Every structure is written in C-alpha cells, then in structure tokens.
Amino acid sequence: MSSSNWCFNYSACRYNWNTCPKDVVHDVRYNDASAAWVLIAAIIVFFMKAGFMLVEVSFAKTVKERRNVVIIKHMDAFASAFGFFLIGFDTIARYSSRESAHAHFFSASNPLLWFFKFTFASNAATVVGGCLVTNTYKLRLPAAFISAFVISGIIHPIIVLIIWSDVSQSISPYRFCVGMLPDYNCTLAAPSFLKSMYVLDFAGSGAVHMLGGTFGLVLCLFAKLEEWRQRRKNATGVQKGTEGGEEVHSEGFWDWMYPVSGGDEAVSEAALGVIILWFAWFAFNCGSTESVETPNPTSSGSQQDPYYNIPAIIAINMIMAAASGGIIAILIATWAQVRLRASSINANEVANGVLSALVAITAGCPFVDYWGACLIGVIAVLVYHLGCWLEYRLDIKDTARVFPVHGLCGLWGLIGTGLLVAGPESECNLHATFEGLCYCELRLPPAGQGERILAQILGSLIIFGIGLVSSVLLYGALYVIPINPFVWVMSKIFFLNPKQRDGNYPPPLVYEGGWLLTSPNEENGVHPQSAQSDLDPEPDDTEALAGGITVQGMHNDYGAVAVDGLQRRSRAGDEEASSVPRTPRSGPGSGTAK
Question: Which of 464, 460, 356 lies closest to 404, judged by CA?
Fold first, then answer.
C-alpha cells in the first residue's frame, strides 16, 4: 500500500495548522505562561483530596470512622509522594526520559512536570479509601500506606508508560510524534493494526479512575471473603439469609439504593465535597493540556479550527457532561422518591451521578463534540446504576460506590471516546487537538470506527488486567500475612507494654488476622482475651459487690486493642441488666453500605 493511501493528509481538513513555535521536548516544555498554568492546575488538583475526604466522611457513622477517613487520606498523600518520587516518575513512567535515555532513580528531572503528574498518581491511590468506610472490616493504616505507595509508585506509572509515553512499545498516540518513530515514516507501507493502534485517554478515565476503581473492587472482595470466613467460623446459631444476626438485603434494589428516609449520609459534607471535586476537576482536565500556548491557524483560505481554544472546549464538554448526567440522576431519584413514597430525594445519589459523568468525560474531553459530551454524561449515570445493581446482587459493601463511579464509568469513558470521536473528520480533529496543544507534530495513522473502538476496548482490558492482577497479588499478600508476630516484636523493641504504677502489666496488644483488614473485635472495641469474661464474669473476692468485672477496650488508629480501664457494676445494676434481654450488637457498617 502506497504512502498516499494511509498517511494523514492535511488537505482533507477544512483547516490547517502552522508549525508550533518550537519543537517541544520535555526539557524545554513550558514558557512562563504555560508553567504558571500547569503549577496552578497541579495545586488545585491536589485539593481534590479535600473533596474525597468530605465525601467519605459523610458516610461515617462514628467518630472513629471519621478519624480513620482523615488519617487514611493523609496517609495516601504521604505514601504516594515517596512512591512517585523514588521510582514512579523517571524510573517507570519516564515522563522526562526519552526512549534512548536511561531511567533515573530517586530524581525529579522536571520539577514542574513531576508535581503535576504526582497529583494524578496520588488521586489514583486515594479513591480506594472510600470502599470500606463503614464496613465491619476496615483497611489497616499500614496496608493503606503500602497500597498508596505501590499504586502511585509502580502500577500507575506502568500504565502511564503504556498509554501516555512516547516509547515505541507503547499504545500511546504520542509515539507518533515526528522524529520519534522513523519506522512510521509516510514513505513506507501502512503499518498493521497492532502497530498503528493507539488509545485515547486524555486525562485519565482509565489510567487514574478505572485503575483506582479496580483496586477498590478487589479490596471489597477481600473484605467480603473475610466476612464469609468469619461467618463459617462462627456459623453456630446463624440462620440462612442473615449475617452476624442481621438480615442481608431484606429490601429490593430500589429500596436499598434509595431508602425511604432519603439516606443517612451527612448531606452538607457530601455536597461540599462534590462541589470541591467538580471545581478541582476543571484543573484536572483543562490542566492536562499542559500549555496555554496555541499556534494560530493559517490565514491562507482556511477556516479557524474549532479546537483553537482547547482548555475552554474541555471545560464546556465537562459542564455539558456533568449537567446532562445530573439531570438524569435527578429524574431517577425523583422517580424513586415517588415510587417508594420517600420523604425526600436522595441527594447523595444525585451527587454520584455528577461524579460519574465527570469520570466518563475525562478520557475524551478534548476529542468529542458537545452533543457527544452530553451523551457520555447521560450513559455514565445509567452505567453507575448498573454497577450499583451488580454490587447489590453480589452483596459487595462498597461504601462510597468506588467501583461503579470510578471503575465502570472510567471504562465507559474509554469506550465512549472511541465511539464518539470516530467520524468523517476524526483524524482532523485529533491532529488539530494534539498539535494545537503543541505537544509535537503528530502523524497519526488513520483509523476507522471499528478499529478505533477495538483499540479503546483493548486499552481498557490492559488497564483492568494490570489493575486486577496487581491488586490481587498486593492485597492477597497483605491478607494472608499475619500481623500479630510483627506487633509482638515491635512491642518488645519499643516497650509498648510498660509496667504500671500498681505493679501490674496491661493486657498485651493483640491484632487479629493479616495486615490488610481489621478484625470485628478490634472494630467493636472488645479485647479478644476479655470478650468471654465479659459475657460470663467470674466473682472477684475483694472488689466485686456484684461479682463481675467488665473490661472495656479502646480501638486505636492502627487497629490494635488497648484496655483503658475497669468498669465495675453494682449488684443492683446487674439485676436490672439481667432482666433486659440482650440483643446482638450491630457494628458500624454491618448492614448495607448506605
């Protein structure tokens, strides 16, 4: 096949671009205006952590759960900073290294680019924390640190290398920059599909959100596995269709998702968190242009390119997608309110509809038309409800709906971009967008609609496969490795069991299970060794008027149990308590996620 049959032909477009003012390379990427643009965008993107924190705190039912959310959000920032700095930026993702250059350890060769890309890697790790906010089995803080370090320092950079880098082995459009791949010169024959395919994920529907959603799904499945294992271990007296003495999904899907009470979340915190996320999302997507310098279109008879002001085009597409998705979410919530005779509309599900649309439009925000952005937002809300239905059917307790919002809607964003960017002038739009951003002078191989959709599906499978395998290996190792031996060693080294003034020693710190999840006894604040004595107390010769001593435990931020004192009960109190039937205790998150 001759070159004229497959190479991109500028004359086929109704507009042409001048060459960018300079040959843009990573070392001299930014002028003063673009550097300020990227720095401000990075600062705002980092502020997304406040939005995620408020959204997750709105689900918390106890002070301990609220504190746990805050600590984990800080832990995500700490761990992702070290992971991305030590190995993620220049070693794996090689943001600042050309294909012929060596990888650099412990470096930030381009500080401005490092800071901007760090916020993306950190957000990929931070979305995982919303899964188990109210679950009986919560993520331990050491596991949260390891998880964020691995995601931001290893897994996210690997995906970046595959879909955003300019190395020849990637499936990134940037590998087609002129001068990067001489094998794709227009004088040669057309390449095969596997060599010419590329994935369009402009700001991270897949590389950030779908990756975080996949890790969140696997974490929820491990929590479900531990829940099932504990039920099998304590199966005596538990009837079929119950879980820990409580009914599981006694209501239908719509009653479960849209409760009659309107939901028990803290509406003010959730609303403020979503508005913060929506605001920072403009920096997330618009800032991904990494430039405010665009060349002027030629004046020799060509029309002005519709992608001339690319950041503003991205902002409009985001607004239209979020508004369309929000309208559909309100309509569904209103229908559910009328059908179920609920007291009010579930505002939290409307907010999740907006977030779902924002996740989906992130992949194709500069590539699709305005009507395409509206369609992506509408379908994203439907995909979100489908994901919630799957979690309902499989009894997956995902507190903040991480997998439906980020995982499935990130997947739809990738596929929707392939569907809606394919048109008679798709190559024109893509070239105008990429060259309008002055990344480089691109020569993308033309692709038909079927080829483009297939490329997006393959890219989605690669991202999901990497996320699934790595999360299973990581969380599986943390799940099976017991943590109590480590606690015992640390207690000896750091003298965590000091002798008290009365000459006695406190009960030893006891962790149950592995490094990944806390145990029910820890979450309920009951010391494992004292649980039996609390139910069947023995008489005390010197202290007991009532013949019993209750040990009340306190759960610290690391999931350990420390005894904080003895509560003596009077004989009258015992007699009164014995006349009241004892009901099973329902811990935080023991029911449904919402």
Answer: 356
Instruction: Give the CA count within 13 Å in the CB-facing half-sphere of 57.
Output: 20
Within a 13 Å sphere around the CA of 561, how many CA atoms are in the beta-carbon half? Answer: 23
The alpha carbon dihedral of 287, 280, 358, 110 has a sign of positive
Whose CA is closest to 186, among 8, 412, 317? Answer: 8
Distance from C-alpha of 124 to C-alpha of 422, rounded to nearest angstrom: 28
Q: Is the dihedral of CA 129, 132, 133, 137 positive or negative?
A: negative
Cα 154 from Cα 150, distance rounded (Å): 5
Q: Beta strand pairing status for 549-555 and 246-247? A: unpaired
Any alpha helices (H) in 343-448, and if so which ranges? 347-361, 370-393, 402, 409-421, 426-436
Nearest to 168 by CA among 94, 110, 109: 94
Among 285, 289, 357, 284, CA closest to 119:
284
CA-based end-to-end distance of the chain: 59
Between β-strands 242-243 and 246-247, what pairing exists: parallel, antiparallel or unpaired?
Answer: antiparallel
Rounded CA separation 186/201 (Å): 25
Q: Are 214 and 464 in contact (CB under 8 A)?
A: yes
Q: Pick from 266, 273, 332, 231: which is nearest to 134 by CA?
A: 266
Say which DSSP state 508 is in.
P
Measured distance CA(509)–CA(389) in Å, rounded: 41
Q: In 295-369, which residue ranges form alpha helices assigned H by DSSP?
A: 310-340, 347-361
**CB count, 10 Å around CB of 209?**
31
Q: Please write down the long-range contacts of 421-424, taking CB distance under 8 Å and 24 or more positions apart.
A: 421/200, 421/364, 421/367, 421/368, 421/372, 421/452, 422/447, 422/448, 422/449, 422/452, 422/453
Q: How far is CA 255 from the centre of its chain?
A: 26
Say if strands 242-243 and 549-555 run parallel, antiparallel, or are unpaired. unpaired
Length of the chain: 594
Report helix, strand or coil for 547. coil
| Partners of 242 in beta bridges | 247
Q: Which residue has the tokens 């507009």?
A: 15
The residue among 445, 442, 418 whose CA lies nearest residue 431 is 442
Q: What is the pLDDT along the chain (594 residues), one digit of tens a residue?
A: 334 445 666 566 655 554 454 444 444 566 778 889 999 999 999 999 999 999 999 999 889 899 999 999 999 999 999 999 988 887 777 775 554 344 556 667 778 889 999 999 999 999 999 999 998 899 999 999 999 999 999 999 999 999 988 787 889 888 877 555 555 566 666 677 888 889 999 999 999 999 999 999 999 999 999 989 888 877 754 444 444 444 456 678 998 899 888 777 888 999 999 999 999 999 999 999 887 765 554 444 444 454 557 888 899 999 999 999 999 999 999 999 888 887 788 888 999 999 999 999 999 998 898 999 999 999 999 999 999 999 999 999 999 999 999 999 999 999 999 999 856 566 667 766 776 665 666 677 777 788 889 999 999 999 999 999 999 999 999 999 998 888 888 887 877 777 777 777 777 666 778 999 988 776 554 444 444 444 444 444 433 333 333 333 344 444 444 433 333 334 444 444 444 444 443 343 343 433
Cα(261)–Cα(105) distance, rounded to whole angstroms? 54
pTM higher than 0.90: no
